[in-house]
Amino acid sequence: MTGMTSSSRPLLNRRLAEFGTTIFAEMSALALKTGSINLGQGFPDTDGPEEIREAAVRALRDGRGNQYPPGPGVPELRTAIAAHQERRYGLSYDPDAEVLVTAGATEAIAAALLALVEPGDEVVALEPYYDSYAACIAMAGGTRVPVTLRPHDGSFRLDLDELRAAVTDRTRLLLINTPHNPTGTVLTREELAAVAELAVERDLLVITDEVYEHLVFDAAEHIPLVSFPGMRERTVSIGSAGKTFSFTGWKVGWVTAAAPLVTAVRSAKQFLTYVASGPFQYAVAEALALPDSYFDAFRADMLAKRDVLAAGLTEAGFEVFRPAGTYFITTDIRPLGPDLSQNGDGFAFCRALPELAGVVAIPNAVFYDHRDEGAPFVRFAFCKRVGVLEEAVGRLKKLAG
Predict the structure, then answer these.
(1) How many angstroms separate the CA atoms of 323 and 342, rounded?
(2) 251: left (phi over 0), alpha (psi -120 to 50) or beta
(3) Beta-carbon count within 10 A of 232 CB
């Protein structure tokens, strides 16, 4: 078999032709093959709160969610999501009409883009971007228009003039991710206000990926874009339990938006998974009601881990962009020198790193349309046990001789 039919047409839909096996699969396989510490894929190596795991077991035993849950999500979870938005941000949503539970944030992104984008529509996204964005825009027939975040004074910043210039008469939607994966940038109140003004002025829809909302550090603050004037009726906000409660395998995400937007997204979502994660929905409802002390301790734990890895990467010779949010650190490999950095080629560096130091990372270039812009940057995840991070740091210090 050559992967071609008798008509010589490729088997894979041409909209998806550029998307092969993800870099995450390749690097995770490399980690297993070489016995390396995997700081590539962003999942914790310990489970979340025991009482929330027990809540899932209880739901299974009680027969809650073992059959198809309601299409929009179980009422307990939709109520808990609305209460969380009210308590944290003062945002009011109707659990019945303005909340939709999804199979993780990934499905929420897919359903929102498939629902709201038509062939020929342009979608402006902040580059580098999470890899599913590009694939979902392609599946919807849209055209992605990247606006590149660039290094400035130790972090990656959005150029608001560049964002404005990217919007044309064909722009349908802005896809905004803050806290931002992979750079760790958290958009400021002033930046968000400018994005909101642009959306209102040009009458654009906005999807905001806020899965790292509870992981903001130092002086950074997560402010939902929907809270700005004129944004309530045009913004689809996306959240996730996986990143906040360290149960990434449960795949529980959600959308909050004005009723017409939720209705549109639900129309696409029902033909993707229909429903998912039944018993876990009940557990996540309990998780969202945890006291503030849980969220504070979670953030403090990740902050300590960030600092362990950031210090180690700096000692190893990387330029480190200390993240204001998420659980990823982006580094510039060029200070390691042309030989070790593979002449600043992140792909070659990440493929060589397991042999060089017994650690796996992800080349940021996979998150760029402009591959050259992302070439020298490499992402490390710090959502691992401190002992694992310390071992990885010890190995990476070999790079510094």
Answers:
(1) 25
(2) left
(3) 16
**Proportion of the chain in helix, strand, coil states, percent, rounded to 5:** 45, 15, 40
The answer to whether residues 202 and 171 touch, using CB atoms and an 8 Å cutoff, is yes
Residue 3, pLDDT score: 54
The one-letter amino acid code at 157 reads R
254 close to 211: Cβ distance less than 8 angstroms: no
| Nearest residue to 361 (alpha-carbon basis) of 387, 382, 391, 338 | 382
Q: What is the pLDDT of residue 21?
A: 77
CA 275, distance to chain mean position in Å, is: 21
- At position 189, the amino acid (one-letter code) is R
pLDDT at residue number 1: 47
- Rounded average pLDDT per 10-residue block, the chain, 401 residues: 65 89 88 95 93 98 98 98 98 98 98 98 97 95 98 96 98 98 98 98 98 97 98 98 97 98 98 97 98 97 98 98 98 97 97 96 96 97 98 95 73
The pLDDT assigned to 23 comes to 86
Distances (CA, A) of 291 to 52, 182, 282, 295, 296: 13, 29, 17, 7, 9
Is 32 in a helix, a strand, or coil?
Answer: helix
How much is the pTM? 0.96
Alpha-carbon radius of gyration of the chain = 21
Sign of the dihedral defined by the CA atoms of residues 249, 255, 261, 262, in that order: positive
For residue 41, the model assigns a pLDDT of 86
Give burial (CB, 10 Å; 0-12/13-18/19+) of 184: buried
Between CA 218 and CA 234 the distance in angstroms is 30
β-sheet bridge partners, residue 161 = none
Count the neighbouring beta carbons within 10 Å of the beta carbon of residue 88: 15
Contacts of 311-316 with CB under 8 Å at 24 or more apart are 311/393, 312/389, 312/390, 312/392, 312/393, 312/394, 312/396, 312/397, 313/380, 313/393, 313/396, 315/393, 315/397, 315/400, 316/393, 316/396, 316/397, 316/398, 316/399, 316/400
Residue 318: name the closest of 364, 387, 384 by CA: 364
Q: Which residue, chain included where needed, has tokens 């902050």?
A: 303
Element (DSSP H or E) covering residue 357? helix 346-357
